[in-house]
Design the sequence.
């Protein structure tokens, strides 16, 4: 077929968490530009199996950019060189015939490698568990329309809420900081009246948890927003910082 | 076996209230003595786990992804229905009930559907309280859109990411309970078998996908919230990991499987681009609010869409169904698209696509309004196809999307195994032969937030809080069985990959048990599947070992179950020689080619009983009684 | 630990706020310092500059501010080093292949290095001028000026010391280079401090970013131009 490409892949292979890993070179032949990046890896994996080589392990599920499972550092960029998309949404038409593509896992102390390109992102879950919710039990009785919320606030909250928890922000940040991820949740709930009763406790608890997990400190390089597949902006970090100062200065927690 | 649906008697609108009153309660102080296992953390599972934990039960939740936030519910785009009647356009609980029963082509239970419509309003209240950022009007109140199969606007949405926002709401409630220590969350842990003691569900066997460790977990009740099985078709809009394993293995223990052949083929998906294709991407049905579906009037017209003048286009849905137009239910829209392509009018290189055109909306509303409504869907389309849908019409084709069939459950959502419940897409309950858009999210959350927390209590109160004996031999036996199967799969070391078998199965299913089915084809498919299954167990190549993260092994287990389920789907489709909803038997159609039901012979739920490996399954019928709704030929003209 | 120490030591946003506040204070200090340095360009044999030096070292308010200033430099350096160390730890294994240039500015990625260059400069600078002024390295000559009110004062001739230093190519080179480093440091640092403090707004952030030019462009340029003028135009 016309337009098919041959590529050289350098892929990070690592047997398990403890083993040392290294980049292995594979050829990807006859790649269609209509393939998604993960479909290209599927094809490579099938050929590896036929050759008796263990296929490359990688996280993926929805393959439409919403579950946040896929996570590859491609040619020096989280989710590849294109902006505003996940790895599974990256299509091979973004590459040139003969190109060499380097594929690595997310790298951060808080995201230990499990195998090959698969990392453990449970730290994100623990950050949410620390306070990324509104404490309401099932069975609330106030009507959904009882509180009007300015459309602009609702829209901004939605911008933040689109975070898919993929971890690209951490992967791209030179400090492996989870600030963008955290700020997305804090900002969403700070913008909505439903989040207000717990806003002080929430931001303090979540930031403390981020510290415990071993993420780095934000130095405002803005690489996170540039690499975020949902293009979550820096304003959410600023809002989170404000929430944090207000919480620290006003909360009655003295320890 | 007599299938007792346990639908309470009395007037339709009072059944649920009455039933809730009659259910036994567990004393608050006793709740912590009960353990409940929830398998799956999609909308159904996360909402159930959180709600049960809030009540005081000890919950253990499982999912195969690395986080509960990634369950496939996250991918739902369009919206969630609720009978709020905020737009004041004549909606009501009864109308939502009626639309859903009719949309399901009268193959769902009235009692269940009415309950669903009743609690739909609570769901929206609940989600808003959790901080779900639904779309709003300028006045600050919630916005609604319309969806297929209804003439009112009752669909709540959060851009094109409604499922994501609802799931993150449920996930946050779940996270809160994990933090409180009331839910123990097991991620990357797949249920591979059910543990039964004295005919009751008492636990599960799981494989830790990171280490390969096979463990057992005991509980007083087990809730399967494991989603749909559309991936039996290989290509579907489901996530790669979506599977039938948990439900199927419960089926093998005696849980009846209902209406397995009821599959929903979604009309608006991005067409297949080649053999490498691993999944099909849905373009939300909400697009049909503003997009117009058409094909060229002439066969084999290869001109570009923009070069085909208005009077040479056939807006076939608008032409055939003037009152619903582009918003006919999914099964109708899909079948019509297939019909046009079969007539040789399909567009695109493959000829297997029709246009979904926004030119008219863009000129009427402006590009900005269209972008605000569907921006992310348009971006997604552009990303996948490399074409700009603001300039050229989208090309769409139907794809497998949802499975109405699933484990048979009674009004309490209990399967035929005492103590085993099925929620969400994993059960068969509320959508009959065809699900209306925006109703699955509603059902998953209804089951998890508002139904099961009541009904489980009734069962638990009956069995009492005595601790389950984790040393019971049933646990060791179930574990040994799972280990044996894992060993067996790894030992075959044949020549074909798991994916190859999966793809082949998918071809058979799509060809013979897809959008149109007939007797000869189904019979042929049954033989083909049996052969493929036999070959799989002789010749599959599963690489690696058990004691590691092994994605080939995970998939092999799932495909093995699909190979059995596929046959049952074909058998069920063969049995049901009527057409209804998404199930179209070519032998049973009206003169105009619409699905023709046969209410005299098939007004029942077909629930299948497993009788042993490679043995024919036994059919049990739950006859459907309609007290409120009159059965009519569905018409969307 | 009290909530305050806990915040500024053990939370990432708290640590950052120290950086931002000390950093912004140092920015104002730079502006004042530069105003003083311009006294060097008066063609009066050093009178204005030497008198300014006396004022700066004897006025009690100014003296307090200068101690605060040293404390802030120290705080800024210590916190900066701690943050940089922590950030290194957060990624023990780096990428084999990385391409950060497209997604973040050079300045933002090299803050630690740029800051260290400034620190080295500060040490040299203090050794050369402050120590000399205090008479630790060597004794300065004395000069006598008649003030506007007719009084006579005898002061150390710092001016000659500076002019002499600024005829050393190495000194001028280091000075200019360091000011370039300062410019880059503040190119990111100035606006970044506002972001850290949460001061971001669609209306005002563009203003802050533009005003930043004063700090990353004009002020370092002002500092650098003085030794160059002296080197090339004064004997
Ligand atoms: C692309 C797409 C768009 C959709 N859009 C809409 C829409 O707009 N409106 C609407 O109403 N519906 C929509 N649907 C349908 C709807 O999203 C699903 O039916 C619904 O979300 C299913 O929820 P669930 O909780 O039953 O299952 P899922 O969300 O699929 O969750 C299944 C869970 O089970 C777990 N699991 C599965 N097997 C095992 C096992 N063996 N062991 C352990 N864990 C297991 C998984 O990890 C997961 O947590 C859409 C579906 C798709 C595919
Ligand atoms: C003395 C040596 C110095 C060192 C080692 C140093 C180091 C650093 C470091 C590591 C950062 C953190 C990176 C970041 O937050 O982006 C930083 C930030 C900053 N520095 Fe410096 N710096 C020094 C001197 C100065 C001086 C002299 C000034 C100003 C006159 C200054 C102003 C700033 C500002 C404004 C920030 C931004 C704070 C923020 O983003 O919150 N620094 N510095
Ligand atoms: S903020 Fe963006 S990059 Fe970070 S986890 Fe969320 S979606 Fe991914
Ligand atoms: S696989 Fe779900 S976001 Fe990529």
Sequence:
């Amino acid at each position: 077929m016309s337009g098919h490409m041959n590529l050289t892949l350098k892929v990070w292979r690592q047997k398990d968490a403890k083993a040392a890993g290294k980049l292995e070179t594979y050829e990807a032949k006859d790649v269609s530009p209509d393939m998604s990046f993960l479909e290209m890896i599927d094809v490579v994996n099938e050929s590896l199996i036929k050759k008796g080589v263990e296929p490359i392990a990688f996280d993926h599920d929805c393959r439409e950019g919403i579950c946040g499972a896929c996570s590859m550092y491609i040619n020096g960029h989280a989710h590849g060189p294109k902006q505003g998309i996940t790895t599974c949404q990256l299509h091979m038409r973004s590459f040139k015939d003969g190109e060499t593509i380097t594929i690595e896992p997310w790298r951060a102390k808080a995201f230990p490698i499990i195998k090959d390109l698969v990392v453990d992102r449970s730290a994100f879950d623990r950050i949410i568990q620390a306070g990324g919710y509104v404490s309401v039990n099932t069975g609330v009785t106030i009507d959904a329309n009882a509180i009007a919320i300015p459309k602009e606030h609702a829209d901004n909250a939605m911008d933040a809420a689109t975070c898919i928890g993929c971890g690209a922000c951490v992967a791209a940040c030179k400090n492996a900081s989870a600030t963008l991820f955290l700020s997305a949740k804090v900002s969403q709930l700070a913008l909505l009246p439903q989040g207000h009763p717990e806003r002080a406790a929430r931001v303090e608890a979540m930031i403390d948890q981020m510290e415990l997990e071993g993420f780095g400190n934000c130095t405002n390089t803005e690489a996170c927003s540039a690499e975020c597949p949902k293009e979550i902006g820096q304003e959410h970090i600023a809002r989170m910082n404000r929430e944090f100062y207000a919480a620290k200065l006003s909360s009655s927690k003295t320890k | 076996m007599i299938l007792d649906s346990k639908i309470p008697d009395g007037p339709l609108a009072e059944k649920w209230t009455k039933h809730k009153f009659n259910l036994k309660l567990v004393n608050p102080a006793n709740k912590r003595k009960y353990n409940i296992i929830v398998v799956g953390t999609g909308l159904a599972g996360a909402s159930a786990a959180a709600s049960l934990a809030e009540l005081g039960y000890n919950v253990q939740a499982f999912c195969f992804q690395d986080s509960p936030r990634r369950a496939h519910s996250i991918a739902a785009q369009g919206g969630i229905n609720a009978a709020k009647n905020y737009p004041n356009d004549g909606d009501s609980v009864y109308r939502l009930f009626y639309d859903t029963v009719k949309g399901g082509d009268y193959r769902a239970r009235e009692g269940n559907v009415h309950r669903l419509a009743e609690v739909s309003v609570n769901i929206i209240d609940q989600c808003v309280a959790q901080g779900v950022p639904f779309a709003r009007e300028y006045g600050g109140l919630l916005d609604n859109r319309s969806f297929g199969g209804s003439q009112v606007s009752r669909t709540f949405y959060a851009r094109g990411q409604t499922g994501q926002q609802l799931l993150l709401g449920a996930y946050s409630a779940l996270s809160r309970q994990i933090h409180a220590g009331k839910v123990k969350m097991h991620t990357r842990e797949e249920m591979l078998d059910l543990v039964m003691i004295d005919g009751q569900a008492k636990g599960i066997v799981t494989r830790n996908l990171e280490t390969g460790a096979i463990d057992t977990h005991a509980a007083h009740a087990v809730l399967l919230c494991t989603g749909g099985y559309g991936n039996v078709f290989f290509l579907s809009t489901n996530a790669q990991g979506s599977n039938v394993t948990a439900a199927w293995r419960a089926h093998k223990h005696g849980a009846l499987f209902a209406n397995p052949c009821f599959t929903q083929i979604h009309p608006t998906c991005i067409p297949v681009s080649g053999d490498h294709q691993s999944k099909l991407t849905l373009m939300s049905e909400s697009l049909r609010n503003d997009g117009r579906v058409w094909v060229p009037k002439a066969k084999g017209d290869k001109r570009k869409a923009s070069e085909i003048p208005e009077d040479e286009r056939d807006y076939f849905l608008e032409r055939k169904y003037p009152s619903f137009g582009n918003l006919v239910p999914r099964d109708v829209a899909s079948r019509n698209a297939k019909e046009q392509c079969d007539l040789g009018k399909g567009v695109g290189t493959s000829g297997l696509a029709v246009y979904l055109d926004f030119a008219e909306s863009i000129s009427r509303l402006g590009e900005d309004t269209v972008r605000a409504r569907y921006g992310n869907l348009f971006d997604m389309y552009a990303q996948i196809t490399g074409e700009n849908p603001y300039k050229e019409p989208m090309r769409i084709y139907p794809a497998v999307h949802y499975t109405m069939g699933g484990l048979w459950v009674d009004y309490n959502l209990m399967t035929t195994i005492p103590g085993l419940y099925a929620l969400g897409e994993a059960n068969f309950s509320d959508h009959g032969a065809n699900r209306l858009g925006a109703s699955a999210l509603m059902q998953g959350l209804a089951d998890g937030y508002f139904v099961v927390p009541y009904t489980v209590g009734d069962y638990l109160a009956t069995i009492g809080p005595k601790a389950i004996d984790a040393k019971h031999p049933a646990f060791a036996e179930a574990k040994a069985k799972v280990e044996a199967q894992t060993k067996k799969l790894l030992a075959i070391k044949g020549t074909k990959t798991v994916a190859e078998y999966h793809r082949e199965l998918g071809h058979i299913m799509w060809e013979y048990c897809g959008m149109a089915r007939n007797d000869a084809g189904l019979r042929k498919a049954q033989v083909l599947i049996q052969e493929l299954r036999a070959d799989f167990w002789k010749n599959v190549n599963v690489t690696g070992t058990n004691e590691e993260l092994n994605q080939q092994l995970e998939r092999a287990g799932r495909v093995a179950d699909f190979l059995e389920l596929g046959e049952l789907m074909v058998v069920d489709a063969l049995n049901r020689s009527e057409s209804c909803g998404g199930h179209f038997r070519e032998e049973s159609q009206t003169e105009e080619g619409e699905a023709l039901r046969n209410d005299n012979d098939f007004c029942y739920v077909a629930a299948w009983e497993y009788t042993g490996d490679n043995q024919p399954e036994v059919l049990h019928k739950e006859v459907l009684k309609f007290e409120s709704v009159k059965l009519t030929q569905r018409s969307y003209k | 630990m009290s909530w305050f120490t806990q915040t500024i030591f053990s939370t990432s946003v708290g640590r950052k706020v120290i950086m931002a506040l000390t950093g912004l204070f140092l920015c104002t200090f730079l502006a004042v310092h530069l105003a003083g340095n311009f006294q060097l360009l008066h063609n009066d044999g050093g009178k204005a500059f030497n008198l300014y030096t006396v004022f700066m070292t004897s006025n009690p308010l100014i003296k307090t501010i200068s101690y605060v200033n040293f404390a802030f430099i120290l705080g800024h350096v210590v916190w900066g080093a701690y943050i940089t160390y922590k950030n290194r730890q957060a990624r023990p294994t780096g990428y084999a292949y990385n391409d950060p240039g497209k997604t973040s500015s050079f300045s933002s990625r090299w803050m630690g290095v740029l800051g260290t260059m400034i620190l080295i400069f500060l040490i040299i600078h203090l050794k050369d001028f402050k120590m000399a002024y205090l008479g630790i390295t060597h004794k300065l000559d004395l000069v006598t000026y008649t003030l506007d009110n007719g009084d006579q004062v005898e002061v150390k001739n710092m001016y000659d010391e500076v002019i002499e230093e600024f005829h050393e190519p190495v000194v001028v080179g280091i000075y200019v280079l360091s000011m370039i480093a300062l410019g880059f440091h503040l190119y990111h640092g100035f606006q970044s401090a506002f972001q850290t403090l949460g001061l971001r707004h669609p209306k005002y952030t563009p203003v802050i970013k533009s005003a930043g030019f004063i700090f990353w462009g004009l002020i370092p340029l002002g500092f650098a131009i003085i030794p160059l003028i002296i080197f090339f135009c004064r004997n």
